[in-house]
Amino acid sequence: MIRGPLARIPAGVCSVLAYLAALMVIALDPRVHGSALASSPAGVAAGRLLQLLSSGLVVDGPAWPQIALLAIVLSAALRRLGAGRLWAVAVAAHVGATLLAYAGIGLLSILDQQLTSQVVRVPTMESR
């Protein structure tokens, strides 16, 4: 049990802070390769479904502006939705949007496999 001033921080706030901290560590630690966490259509087809979730920890591009903006959006969503609904919506949106994009890539590959051959094998985020 946590005692003292930290005990007064709501669990939802702690979950958002922990997520943002994880994003910063992964984005800034050169030993962590985002491509190992990122998903790809081929990876999902091969059954590596955990990467659908771990890809939510990968920041592609300049990390600080994206994480700062995400902190603002998450704090507003936390106030409006509460922690449980926030994380349910976030996971559903992340996984759903990824699967929808992969379905589109799959349809394009039926039309022209050469058009999508590079996209299917490469994780959605290249290593830094």
Features:
7 helices
Structure description:
It is elongated and about 60 Å long. The protein has seven helices and no strands. The longest helix has 29 residues, at 83-111. It has one domain (10-121). It is mainly alpha-helical and 128 residues long.
Would you tell me the structural class of the helices and strands?
A: mainly alpha
- Count of structural domains: 1
* Count of DSSP H/I helices: 7
Order of helices and strands: HHHHHHH
> Globular, elongated, flat, extended or rod-shaped: what is the shape?
elongated
How large a portion of the residues is in β-strands, by DSSP E? under 5%
**Helix residue percentage:** 55-70%
Strand element count: 0
